[in-house]
Amino acid sequence: MNILLLPNAFKGSLSALAAARELTRVLTKKHTVRAYPLSDGGDGFMDFFRTLDPQAKTIFLTAKNAFLKPRRTSFLRLSDGKTAVIETARICGLGAAKKEELDPLGASSYGVGQAMLRAVQDGAKTIYVGLGGVACNDGGAGMAAACGAKLLDKDGREIALGAEPLLQLARVDLTALKQTMKGVRVYAVADVTNPLLGPKSSAKVFGPQKGATPAQVKVLDRAMARWARAVKNASGRDIAHTPCTAAAGAIAAGLYGCFGATLLVGADFLFQKAHLEEHFDWADLIITAEGKLDRQTFYGKAPLAVLKLAKKHKKPVLFICGQLEEKALQKQPLAPAQVAVLADFAPDAQTSMQHPAVYLRRVAKAV
C-alpha cells in the first residue's frame, strides 16, 4: 500500500519531524511511504523550510522568551542569503513553558522583535514569521517595541511590556520601526484564521491555553481592542477583524498592522510551497497527526489542509492524535473517517504525552 504521511507536531512532546521518523520506521516494513513533516506556522516551521532548503544556515542569538527571560534561540537564513525564517514557537513558545510560569497578562512577544532585528542586521530582505504555539497574547506589541515602535500612554510615557499594560495605551509611534524595516518584506504565516476580536477572538479561543482565567480573557479582549484602535490610528490598517490576526497570541495582528506584513494561511501556503498535493493521487492512504484533535484543528491548522485535499482526491484518512475532543467532530463535514488516539493505547493520557513515540509506533504496527 502507498501511504502519504503528513504529520504535524505534537506540541510540547514530539516534533513533526520526529513523528514522521517514528511512523516511517514502522510503516516501511510493510508499505511504501512518502513522509513530509508539516507545519502550519507553529511548531516545526523552521524544520519545514530546512527540509526544502538543506543549505539553509541556523543563526543563533539570545532573545527574551514570553516571560522576558533571556534564552538562547535561533532563526534560519536560507541559502539565498536574503531570506530569514523565524519560528515564534522557538522564541516565546508555550510548549517549553511550565504551568507555574504562565502569565497571560504579562507575557510578551518582545523576543520575536529581537530576532527580526537580528535578521535585518544579518542582511535579510524577506522575513517569514511562523505563527503559532506561543505563551503570550500581547498582539505583537512587544515585538513592535523591540523594533523601535513607541507605545505611549495619555501623558506620552512609554508603557510596560505585556498585554495588560495595553489598557493604558493612547498612541503608537511607528516612525523608528518603519525606518528600521525599510525595504524588508514581511510575511506572517498564520496557523489559524481567527480574527483578533469578536466571538472567536485570540483571547476567547486561545487565551485559556496560555493560562488565562475567564476574568483574564475579558481583560485580554479589552487590551486587544485598545491595541487595535491605536494601531489603526498609526497605520490605517484594521487589525481587529482581519482574518488570521489572532494567530500566535495575535502577533499576526502586530505584524499586519505595524510592519505592513502580508498575512498567509500557513497550511495552504506551505502545501503550495512544497507541492504536496502532487502526491495525493499516488497514495492509497493518507495519514496525518497532531497532538490534539479539537475545534482548533478546524480553524486552519495543517491537518485541516490534509483533510481538504484528501476529500478532493477521494482518499481515506487516518488521523492520529494524542487526545481527542469528541465534540469537535460533531457536524464537521471534514472529520476524518478513522481516528487513532494515543491515549487509548497508553495507561493514561499523561503517559501518552510523555512517551508519544512509543504509542505512535504501536498505532503504525496496526496499519
Give the distance, in angstroms, between the N- and C-terminal Cα atoms: 10 Å
| Helix/strand structural class | alpha/beta
C-alpha geometry: globular
What fraction of the residues are assigned to beta strands by DSSP? 15-25%
Helix coverage percent: 25-40%
Low-confidence stretches: none
Average pLDDT reading? 93
How do the SSEs run, as a string of H and E?
Answer: EHEHEEEHHEHEEHEHHHEHEHEEHHH
Tags for this entry?
14 helices, five-stranded parallel beta sheet, 13 strands, 367 residues, globular, six-stranded mixed beta sheet, alpha/beta
Could you please describe the fold and organization of this structure?
The chain is built from 14 helices and 13 strands. A hairpin with a 5-residue loop joins β4 and β5 (about 85). It is an alpha/beta fold. α8 runs parallel beside α9 (about 245-260) and α10 (about 265-275) crosses α11. The strands form 3 sheets. It has a 6-stranded mixed β-sheet, with helices on both faces. The chain has a 5-stranded parallel β-sheet with strand order 2-1-11-12-13, sandwiched between helices. The radius of gyration is 20 Å and the shape is globular. The protein has helices spanning about 15-25, 45-50, 90, 110-120, 140-145, 175-180, 200-205, 215-235, 245-260, 265-275, 300-310, 340-345, 350-355, 355-365, and strands at about 1-5, 30-35, 55-65, 70-75, 85, 125-130, 150, 170-175, 185-190, 260-265, 285-295, 315-325, 340. Helices cover about 35% and strands about 20% of the residues.
